[in-house]
TrEMBL record:
Any one of the GO CC terms: plasma membrane
Membrane topology: Multi-pass membrane protein
Signal peptide feature range: none
The entry's keywords: Cell membrane, Membrane, Transmembrane, Transmembrane helix, Transport
Name of the molecule in the record: Probable membrane transporter protein
Family stated for the protein in its record: Belongs to the 4-toluene sulfonate uptake permease (TSUP) (TC 2.A.102) family.
Length: 262
């Protein structure tokens, strides 16, 4: 596809907004993936390119948490490996799916993720008793990792929610370990998609710069003004970009609905 400066600039702005929101509430992929699709990037390439910029951003967060001693590497070694393996499988499945079917599936997944963020529970920072053991943790990590390799948005929130609700971690420790699990799934998914030649490197690296700057701005915003506005902004932005995708009569999902109505 033709990559112009205006397209790269627009996607960098989208990545900046996504990085800012991701630093506050998570879910930045709900903005970057539909932005890439709206720019005309094919579905698999859009997910692959988003995976590149997401991996860089998540890696920075892991380094920050590790320096502060929030990560128990020994306890999470097996879940990290499970997340890595699950993501590799998910990314492999992604590369084998028909692009027409994927074009119809992605808007539905984006809407489902927006609804998840509407109703996701608030979480506490206090550690609680774990409701499941290490094998269950590895299994959950593999399933969520598979989802991340296949699609991605919301992966960090899924990991965090599971670690708090099922495995008893406080919010800060849950977020720290969710970032590690997410980094493992990002690296594995990215490796599979790079091997398949699906990553648009210029766009992905440019978006990574925008995402990193947005992450810094989001952290500053959260500390100064609070995080209350981030979730509504994420939902509205995601739905608006998804509506932009569905407004195209050539979208398979739109064409199917119009066929039913007609």
């Amino acid at each position: 596809m033709d990559i112009g400066f205006d397209l790269i600039a627009a996607l960098m702005v989208a990545a900046f907004v996504a990085g800012m929101i991701d630093a506050i509430a998570g879910g930045g992929g709900l903005i970057t993936i539909p932005a890439l699709l709206a720019a005309g990037v094919p579905p698999v390439a859009a997910i692959a390119t988003n995976k590149l910029q997401s991996t860089i951003g998540t890696g920075g967060a892991v380094i920050a948490f590790a320096r502060r001693g929030h990560i128990d590497w020994r306890k999470f070694a097996v879940p990290i490996a499970a997340s890595f393996a699950g993501s590799a499988v998910g990314a492999f499945i992604l590369t084998r799916i028909d692009s027409t079917f994927l074009s119809a599936l992605l808007p539905a997944l984006l809407i489902a993720m927006a609804l998840y963020y509407c109703f996701a529970p608030r979480m506490s920072d206090a550690d609680r008793h774990s409701r499941a053991g290490p094998l269950a943790l590895a299994g959950v990590a593999m399933v969520i990792g598979c989802y991340d390799g296949f699609f991605g948005p919301g992966t960090g929130s899924f990991f965090t929610t599971a670690l708090v609700a099922v495995f008893g971690l406080g919010l800060i420790r849950a977020v720290a370990h969710a970032k590690v699990l997410n980094l493992a799934s990002n690296v594995a998914g990215l490796a599979v998609l790079v091997a398949g030649g699906h990553v648009l490197w210029i766009i992905g690296l440019a978006m990574a710069v925008g995402s990193a700057a947005g992450g810094q701005a989001g952290a500053h915003f959260a500390m100064r003004f609070g995080a209350g506005i981030a979730r509504p902004l994420l939902i509205v932005s995601s739905l608006a970009l998804t509506a932009r995708l569905l407004a195209d009569p050539a979208n398979p999902l739109t064409a199917m609905v119009l066929g039913w109505v007609g």
